[in-house]
Specification:
Structural class: alpha/beta
Shape: globular
Radius of gyration: 18 Å
Distance between the termini: 30 Å
Largest sheet: 7 strands, parallel
Oligomer: single chain
Helix content: 40-55%
Number of helices: 8
Strand order of the largest sheet: 3-2-1-4-5-6-7
Length: 260
């Protein structure tokens, strides 16, 4: 088994009480990392933190709070002032036709999926530079590279984050601090299943028809599993991944059809 070399490190994993965030947190805990488990629902956060600790024989710290708010961010960094690893992750805007988005909705989408990760990175990165170790992974979406109907706002905000960090990440690479983006395709999570329901309603068809169409476009012939995504995230946080930075890594079963 590959030794990730991060046992004893400390990680903040945003939005880790469910879905892709939970998968990332569990993979890191399994590698020996102390992990802050975060979400809005305090009861769920506490329960999931316990479940991950028991499943991995690891150490977790439950921190309830909305990471898109200053108070939520303060709670994270109060619980773990000097993280070695930061996974940014916030639920994207709901599926919606772009014509129905008003200014308030657009600004909220940009704040949640672009501004919030930048604020979190600003808080964490200088300490990482000083300690000469840091791993930052932003969970974005395959929709950064290819359009998905109804996710235009999410795509735009996450693409903005990618562009913003493209220069910033190169200013800290000398200090063994890497910043990468993980772009999930269709992964079997609550959000994916909710998206299927919303798309079916938007297009006036059945959920089974939407799933069949989506899977038909995936060369792997299936949706991904959260554990597969989590393992990829943990590797990017590892010592062996130290020479990987500034990358947009697809976890999509070949869905994005391109050579580069």
């Amino acid at each position: 088994m590959l030794d990730l070399g991060i046992a004893g490190r400390r990680a903040i994993v945003c939005g880790s009480s469910r879905g892709l965030g939970r998968a990332a947190a569990e993979a890191l805990a399994r590698a020996g990392v102390t992990v802050v488990i975060n979400g809005i629902d305090a009861e769920r956060v506490a329960r999931v933190a316990g479940e991950i600790a028991r499943a991995t024989n690891g150490h977790t710290i439950p921190v309830a709070g909305d990471v898109t708010t200053p108070a939520g961010q303060d709670a994270l960094f109060t619980a773990m002032p000097e993280p070695d690893i930061l996974i940014t992750n916030a639920g994207g805007p709901p599926h919606k036709d772009f014509r129905s988005l008003d200014r308030a909705a657009i600004l909220a989408g940009v704040a949640n999926n672009m501004v919030t990760p930048i604020e979190l990175i600003q808080r964490a990165v200088d300490g990482m530079v000083a300690r000469r170790f840091g791993r930052i992974v932003n969970i974005t979406s395959v929709s950064v590279k290819m359009p998905i109907p109804g996710l235009d706002l999410s795509s735009g905000a996450r693409a903005g984050l990618t562009g913003f960090l493209a220069g910033a990440l190169r200013s800290v690479a000398h200090a063994n601090v890497t910043i990468n983006n993980l772009l999930p395709g269709y992964i079997d999570t609550d959000r994916y299943r909710g998206g299927v329901t919303a798309t079916a309603k938007l297009q006036g068809t059945t959920e089974d028809a939407i799933r069949e169409r989506q899977v038909g476009g995936i060369p792997a012939g299936r949706v991904g599993q959260p554990t597969e995504f989590g393992a990829t995230c943990a590797f990017l946080c590892s010592v062996p991944a130290a020479y990987i930075t500034g990358q947009n890594i697809l976890v999509d079963g070949g869905l994005y059809n391109a050579a580069f």
